[in-house]
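Quick one:
INPUT:
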């Protein structure tokens, strides 16, 4: 994957985690929603000034934005979740919390 697409995917992922639409983030950054869409799909590279505004608007650090640890396949994510659940197997309270969190997330989808 090229750097434009990786960066765009990360921006999109963080934007969604912040519950922002493309229109909302574009307004905060002072660019058009179409420009933000092009950045997120990796068809154009973001200018440094715009990147700084995106980082500020998403309330993240440069290091967080450029970290590659967020890119995992579904299989890798399932494996990581399974490891966490196995760690908590003996603690009913923790398992109940995990269940409630997952239930809320899945019900929202």
């Amino acid at each position: 994957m090229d750097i434009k697409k990786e960066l765009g995917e990360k921006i999109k992922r963080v934007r969604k985690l912040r519950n922002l639409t493309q229109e909302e983030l574009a307004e905060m950054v002072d660019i058009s929603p179409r420009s933000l869409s092009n950045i997120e799909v990796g068809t154009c590279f973001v200018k440094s000034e715009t990147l700084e505004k995106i980082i500020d608007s998403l309330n993240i650090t440069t290091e967080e934005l450029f970290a590659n640890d967020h890119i995992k396949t579904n299989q890798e994510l399932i494996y990581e979740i399974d490891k966490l659940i196995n760690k908590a197997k003996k603690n009913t309270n923790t398992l109940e919390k995990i269940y409630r969190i997952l239930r809320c997330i899945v019900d929202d989808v």
